[in-house]
């Protein structure tokens, strides 16, 4: 059974940091590109960061470049999102996504709230 389980969300003050984790099971993790998306009510889901399957090359949305870092540990079947210098506009539900041709999996999401 395919599972993506996000963790690490919570409430943080502006300027603070959080580290999200996404633990994968039920598929060959190392063969999948991994991505983090976020969504706020009433808006479309937005791609935040991605990391390729083989080379582990990262890419980021302009809104998070220089503040967020995506990484993966294929031995632990886990992808991470280190979020620094958080802003109120980063508040959203963050979703983990696994992607390869014809196969796409989603986690249940974890809430991140940036507020003083």
Short description:
The chain has 116 residues and is mainly β. The chain is built from no helices and 11 strands.
Protein described:
By secondary structure, this protein is mostly beta strands. Helices cover 0% and strands 53% of the residues. It is built from no helices and 11 strands. The protein has strands at 3-7, 10-12, 18-25, 33-39, 46-51, 58-60, 68-73, 78-83, 92-100, 103-106, 110-114. Strands 2, 4, 5, 6, 9, 10 and 11 form a 7-stranded mixed β-sheet that branches. The termini are far apart. The model has no long low-confidence stretch (mean pLDDT 96).
> Whole-Å distance between the termini?
40 Å
Oligomerization status of the protein chains: single chain
Mean pLDDT: 96
| Contiguous helical run count | 0
User: Which runs of at least 5 residues are low in confidence (pLDDT < 50)?
Assistant: none
Radius of gyration (CA) equals 13 Å
Give the overall shape, derived from the CA principal axes.
Answer: globular
**Biggest beta-sheet profile:** 7 strands, mixed
Beta-strand level of the residues, as a percent range?
Answer: over 45%
Helix-residue proportion: under 10%
- How would you classify the helix and strand content by structural class? mainly beta
Order of helices and strands: EEEEEEEEEEE
Please count the beta strands (DSSP E, at least 2 residues each).
11
């Amino acid at each position: 059974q395919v599972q993506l389980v996000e963790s690490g969300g919570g409430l943080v003050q502006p300027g603070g940091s959080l580290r999200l984790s996404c633990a994968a099971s039920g598929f060959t993790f190392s063969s999948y590109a991994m991505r983090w998306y976020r969504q706020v009510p009433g808006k479309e889901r937005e791609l935040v960061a991605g990391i390729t399957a083989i080379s582990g090359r990262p890419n980021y949305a302009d809104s998070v470049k220089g503040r967020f870092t995506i990484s993966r540990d294929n031995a632990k079947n886990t992808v991470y999102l280190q979020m620094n210098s958080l802003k109120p506009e980063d508040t959203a539900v963050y979703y983990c996504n696994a992607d390869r041709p014809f196969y796409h999996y989603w986690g249940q999401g974890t809430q991140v709230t940036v507020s003083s």
